[in-house]
Write a structure and sequence with these properties.
Elements (H helix, E strand, L loop, with lengths): L4 H13 L13 H4 L10 H8 L13 H20 L4 H21 L2 H10 L1 E8 L3 H7 L9 E7 L5 E9 L2 E13 L4 E4 L3 E4 L2 E4 L4 H9 L4 H8 L5 E7 L3 E6 L4 E7 L3
Antiparallel strand pairs: 1-2, 1-10, 2-3, 3-4, 4-5, 4-6, 5-8, 6-7, 8-9, 9-10
Length: about 270
């Protein structure tokens, strides 16, 4: 939250002169008692600063934002390290993902622009680094999946209309299988819904019907059975994106799994 000292001083002066407005400010300071006697003496700058010490920190950010910005930075530090080295303990990575999800939900509610920033940051290419797997996968192998063993890359393009998504499995730079299609993004809840309309296998591509990709994904273990059920109901597969910045992205898939991606150079 960007603040301007002169505006803050003006706002404080209004509140001091009109004590009934103080009910809208969550501060234990009594503006009526803080005001000077009617002798023509004005409050000094230091007194105005005292009035706002419970509302803003030294950087001009709201005190409420301090509740989530610092722990968000801590979570991102763990996840960045995991994306770079794949050496962080899987349990610690899962905890960081879960905590980040809760904190980003709080931040998006308090700061609407935070959700729009996720879409802006999503554009580009991402390599899947870590996933807890879908609930079906966890139940099947009796444990969570962690660092992803093969090269899986997703690309998002927000410069087109509609937006475009690509999902592929690679050996080196060669795509074994690749799905492409459009996606839509709901900024309010950071929900990305997509529909693959084309598949390429070993470089040979064909158009596919809506819902076919979900069946293929589920049959190969790369997708969730939940996506198949949603397709049968006319619903699209989706991700609930948690964060996306210049280095990493995080999301919860439609199957319930959490995932971490690392940004890679465009090919």
């Amino acid at each position: 939250m960007k603040t301007y000292p002169s505006l803050l001083l003006l706002a404080a002066a209004v509140l001091v002169l009109e004590p009934t407005c103080s009910a809208f400010v969550p501060s234990p300071v009594s503006f009526r008692s803080a005001a000077p006697a009617a002798t023509g003496t004005s409050l000094g700058v230091s007194q105005f600063q005292d009035l706002f010490k419970d509302l803003f920190n030294a950087d001009g950010k709201s005190a409420a934002s301090a509740e989530y910005d610092e722990p968000i930075a801590d979570c991102l530090a763990i996840l960045n390290a995991a994306a770079e080295t794949k050496a962080e303990e899987p349990e610690e990575v899962v905890t960081a993902l879960e905590d980040l999800e809760k904190l980003m939900r709080k931040k998006a509610k308090a700061e609407p622009d935070a959700a729009a920033a996720v879409l802006a940051g999503l554009n580009g290419s991402w390599r899947l680094v870590f996933t807890t797997g879908t609930k079906e996968t966890q139940d099947k192998i009796k444990k969570t999946v962690n660092y992803f063993p093969v090269k899986a890359v997703q690309r998002f393009d927000t410069s087109t209309e509609p937006y475009g998504i690509e999902n592929g499995i690679y050996v080196g730079d060669f795509a074994l299988v690749r799905f492409t299609g459009p996606f839509v993004f709901n900024v309010a809840n950071r929900k990305l819904e997509f529909d693959f309309t084309r598949i390429e296998v070993l470089g040979l591509g064909i158009d596919i019907k809506s819902g076919d990709a979900a069946k293929i994904g589920a049959s190969t273990g790369l997708g969730s059975e939940n996506n198949v059920k949603n397709a049968e109901k006319g619903k699209l597969p989706f991700f609930n994106w948690i964060s996306a910045d210049e280095t990493i992205a995080t999301a919860r898939g439609g199957g319930g799994g959490l995932a971490l991606w690392k940004r890679i150079d465009e090919e």
